[in-house]
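Narrative of accomplishments. A recurring question from our advisory board has been how the design workflow behaves on a single, concrete structure rather than in aggregate. To address it, we present the structure tokens for one chain from the evaluation set, followed by the sequence designed for it. No filtering or post-editing was applied between the two.
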């Protein structure tokens, strides 16, 4: 169980850091997205009913925002308060290990789920579902120390809860690879489009786009190998295979060589399979690697039908093995029983979204699993995944460019902070911030504006000159072209963008993009336009009644003060600053608890060392008491004048004492206290 302790600590710290970045990123965008003057006000999403209690409404739509009226808080104030609480709690968890507790992670999961319920289209992404599912597993993985007196020792069921994480990672990776092949998208066989058509490309994507075509195709081969066959190794009984590394652990010589041969055979099989399935060939003349698919969609579909059910049984056997091994090692305790039941339930309901990959396998699933999944679906405990199913933007990346004017003669483009717009502007680094509006603009460009009703709300708020929405486009409002006076007219056009190529002499071009005008995306509108007013009413974006005035109570004033402190700051800079502070403080804590002489950890004030349990301390104290009693008995024997062992060594063979040389050792007075000290 020793190798579980460190991964558990690293995983829980990482999840606390991910929660922190997610809450900070969302907090910076709440006023523009869900405020009273935002694109989709949260108060319109929650319909408070006097006939139902908050608990009944919570069961229908699980969010703690149903209790806002009882607390005297407006909906948008409660949303900001929940997000700020998530930031504070996750930041504290990154700094203090005792707070990486099951109870704390339950609170973080509940807070994010409450926000996701009112997030609407801006929080309906796969990474939001993935964070909720992983966050729920953190509740099972994390120790329950706050309610049990701070006990954080490794438990017998940690291997079982960690298995659920492996199963989640398997479903995520395997499904992401399968959906690419089942979509029949012909452009997924090369990454020549992906770098410039991804949702929010960065400056590094421009350089990756310039790589040779053969390398782009080889990258796709590597992607499919990593996402489809490699995840099966997550259930390997060999830990080294699960880690994907060729190294030998200290075992018997024969066992080490056998494990080494098995690992070598597995990796060689993966390489051979990739060569056969993708016809990999070295071209020494061109110094490249050619690749093409030698299997068809029908072949892969037959493979998927044969492998889906065995995948389920592989999971059953692997989970059963972890349960039985934990039982034989620690015994069938009550805690072990509860965790086994919870793990089996999570695995069972996860089979429903997993079998969405293959329809026939889903029909053979136990009906009880489907009923259980439907009962807990609104809590997002398990989800279906499939990243980048189809390659979009083939033939040019579509982008929507908004233009504003004061006189309908001179038009000025309104640039976004993160999405492509100005062809000469380098795209900034966005990770780990998630700009929700910029991301949705990419989806809006793929279709008509009627498929994105929120876009009409965006035009409406920009015409009104709402600063909260303007900050979504440019955090520094002074960079917004209409910060002094809102535009009187707005319109939007669709363009197609491509990355530029290096010049013939190898130098870099002055522009990052080149673009071509395609068509009008949104007609010219202004406030009071009958057509525009009709669209606002159609999508329910027109304010039928003004929101309640801001309250002067303590909590709302504190929320407004906190907002004033972060307004105008860049979200990525704020997130990275918190990361740096957390890492620095954690490093100081490690250095403070490290003994400079031995390099190990010092004893804590309570006398507990790292990883030491109360049982170890009790046994150590008993041994110390026994040693003290033995020392007291020896001292009593000395005081009584009983000869000690080796006392006759000072006598010669005749029984007389040998003289002591005064020059070698000075005489000392025969003092009983001196003998006692000796």
């Amino acid at each position: 169980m020793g190798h579980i302790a460190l991964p558990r600590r690293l995983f829980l710290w990482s999840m606390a850091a991910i929660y922190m970045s997610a809450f900070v990123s969302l907090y910076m965008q709440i006023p523009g997205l869900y405020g009273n003057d935002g694109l989709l006000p949260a108060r319109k999403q929650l319909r408070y009913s006097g006939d139902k209690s908050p608990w009944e409404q919570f069961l229908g739509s699980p969010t703690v925002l149903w209790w806002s009226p009882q607390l005297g808080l407006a909906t948008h104030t409660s949303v900001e308060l929940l997000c700020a609480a998530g930031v504070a709690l996750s930041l504290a968890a990154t700094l203090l290990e005792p707070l990486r507790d099951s109870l704390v992670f339950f609170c973080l999961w509940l807070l994010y789920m409450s926000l996701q319920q009112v997030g609407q289209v801006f929080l309906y992404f796969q990474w939001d579902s993935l964070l909720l599912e992983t966050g729920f597993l953190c509740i099972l993985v994390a120790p329950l120390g706050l309610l049990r007196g701070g006990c954080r020792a490794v438990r017998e069921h940690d291997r079982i809860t960690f298995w659920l994480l492996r199963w989640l990672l398997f479903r995520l990776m395997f499904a992401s690879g399968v959906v690419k092949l089942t979509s029949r998208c012909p452009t997924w066989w090369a990454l020549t489009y992906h770098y410039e058509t991804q949702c929010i490309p960065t400056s590094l994507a421009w350089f990756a786009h310039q790589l040779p075509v053969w390398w782009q195709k080889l990258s796709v081969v590597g992607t499919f190998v990593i996402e489809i066959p490699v995840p099966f190794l997550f259930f390997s009984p060999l830990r080294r295979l699960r880690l994907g590394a060729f190294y030998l652990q200290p075992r018997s010589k024969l066992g080490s060589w056998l494990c080494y041969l098995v690992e070598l055979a597995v990796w060689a099989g993966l390489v051979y399979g990739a060569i056969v399935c993708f016809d990999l060939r070295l071209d020494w003349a061109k110094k490249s690697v050619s690749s093409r698919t030698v299997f068809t969609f029908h072949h892969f579909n037959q493979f998927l039908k044969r492998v889906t059910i065995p995948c389920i049984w592989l999971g059953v056997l692997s989970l059963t093995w972890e349960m039985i091994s934990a039982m034989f090692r620690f015994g069938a305790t009550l805690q072990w029983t509860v965790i086994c039941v919870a793990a089996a339930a999570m695995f069972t309901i996860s089979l429903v979204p997993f079998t969405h990959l293959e329809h026939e396998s889903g029909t053979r699933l136990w009906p009880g699993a489907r009923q259980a999944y439907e009962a807990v679906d609104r809590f997002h405990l398990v989800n279906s995944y499939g990243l980048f199913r189809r390659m979009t933007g083939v033939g040019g990346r579509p982008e929507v460019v908004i233009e504003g004017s004061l006189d309908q003669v001179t038009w000025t483009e309104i640039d976004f902070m993160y999405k492509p717009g100005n062809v000469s502007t380098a795209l900034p680094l966005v990770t780990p911030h998630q700009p929700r509006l910029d991301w949705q603009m990419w989806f809006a460009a793929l279709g008509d504006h009627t498929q994105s009703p929120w876009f009409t709300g965006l035009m409406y708020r920009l015409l009104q000159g709402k600063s909260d929405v303007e900050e979504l486009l440019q955090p520094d409002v002074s960079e917004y072209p209409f910060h002094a006076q809102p535009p009187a007219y707005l319109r939007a056009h669709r363009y197609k963008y491509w990355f530029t190529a290096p010049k013939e002499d190898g130098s870099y071009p002055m522009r990052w993009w080149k673009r071509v005008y395609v068509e009008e995306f949104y007609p010219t509108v202004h406030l009071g336009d009958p057509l525009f007013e009709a669209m606002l009413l159609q999508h329910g974006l027109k304010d039928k009644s003004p929101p309640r005035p801001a309250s002067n109570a303590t909590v709302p004033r504190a929320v407004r003060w906190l907002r004033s402190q972060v307004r105008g700051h860049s979200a990525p800079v704020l997130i990275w600053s918190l990361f740096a502070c957390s890492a620095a403080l954690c490093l100081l804590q490690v250095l403070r608890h490290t003994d400079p002489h031995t390099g190990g950890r010092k004893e804590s004030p309570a006398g507990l060392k790292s990883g030491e349990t109360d049982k170890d301390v009790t046994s150590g104290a008993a041994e110390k008491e026994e040693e003290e009693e033995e020392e007291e008995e020896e001292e009593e024997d000395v005081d009584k004048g009983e000869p000690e062992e080796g006392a006759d060594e000072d006598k010669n063979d005749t029984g007389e004492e040998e003289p002591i040389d005064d020059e070698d050792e000075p005489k000392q007075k025969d003092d009983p206290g001196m003998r006692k000290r000796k």
